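[Automated response] Your request has been received and processed.

Submitted sequence:
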Amino acid sequence: MAAKPFAPEEARRTVGALRQPAVFCNMASDWPGLQWNVDYLSRVLESRPIKFRLGKRQERNVPLFETQCSYTEAKLQDFVAWSRGQTASPSEPFSDYLLSEYWAYADYKYIAMLFADKASMFEDIKWEDFGFPGRDARDSTLWIGTEGANTPCHLDSYGCNLVLQVQGRKRWHLFPPEDTRCLYPTRIPYEESSVFSKVNVVNPDYSQFPAFGQAKPHVVTLKPGQVLFVPRHWWHYVESIDPITVSINSWIEMDIDDEARVGEALTKTIVCALKSAGSPDNGDVWLNPTEAEVSSHEENLLYLNLAVQSCLEKQKCHCNKSTAFKSGTAIRLGKRDFRGQAKRTEPAEEGADSHEPAEISTVPFGPNLVAVPLKLDEQAPQCQAGGAQDSRHRVCAPSSPSSQLSCGFGDEHSCPRKPERGEAEVTTFSNKKRTGGSHRFSPISTNELLDSLVHPEVIALVTKILMDKQN
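Generated structure:
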């Protein structure tokens, strides 16, 4: 058996040093999990029902959020037959959905729950090869979809992400944290640990979201056997581009997530308080299907206090350490009612109590580690293992250097796109006098108020104030 391009310790140091998305090649070629195609999984799961999200195939310039999708429960065999165009009887779960009009996605399926009675399968996924001993399929999530299935553009509040592609190809559109203002963040629909973008990044409406023209998309088509690393707080939109896709991911918690949990508890307290209030504009479906129910203000305030207390205690424990990753469980909390279920503690690395692996000065990019490039041309990164070159339409045309404005947190501007010749300048409160136009006031809705109150920058600032007061 050929040696891996990176030893576990080297892979973990590399993951800790990466500040941009990158694709690892030839690191999972011997994993039994690469056999987890839909035919294999349908035999293993037999008659177990799985919840599928169905989205309408249509051209649109706004995101299709999960609150706008249809849902059905079906056996994986039914899904496979439907995805291959086999005729379904009127009683079958996909009978109301034409494959030509809908895509289907079984997303966020926690393997620890899905295969609870087949524990031997957990060892088929070997994240220990990336320097995380004891991490396997129990700490992983399964995704099965048809062509067109997608996840709305969002950032994850916690940790970083490793993604193994098993079957078919997925295209990832990734944006750095400094593009946050350019992506118009929102917490409606509300989902714990996910900040959504209002922009349809593959078909943007520049008249409504002009700042998106300054975003810096990194795009990659992930092929079977490859592992994608998504750094902390990188935005991502993911779409399946083959008839059937299967992928497996694991969210890696980090020490810095302790403070992020305070911010998430604060966000939930504010969102639930305002959206639960009696108001004519609060009739929208604002709670994501991933969330079980609306918790009370008392419950949210209790959780906020517990998050602050826990963060303070952990800061004291780690004040003399400089660690990146947690040594305990890294299952993402708050998704699909998974909190507290199948939680376990990983065995610590030898010597992990005293130090983390030493930092590396340079990232070893090469044929086995390929950086995901900016979308400036149609060239997709190629691994030594091969794979077809892929191309599609551009996300947006690059602007001239003179019109580039920073989208970093704390910037004064909101990344406006420089108007082209003959194009009207957008009138805002700040430029009202300069343009000579009159601003037509429209009432502020609850959701618009929330977009300001729970904006990532605002939450980060209030979190700091709360922590400083306690300190």
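Summary generated for your ticket: The longest strand covers residues 102-110. The mean pLDDT is 84.
If you did not submit this request, please reply to this message.
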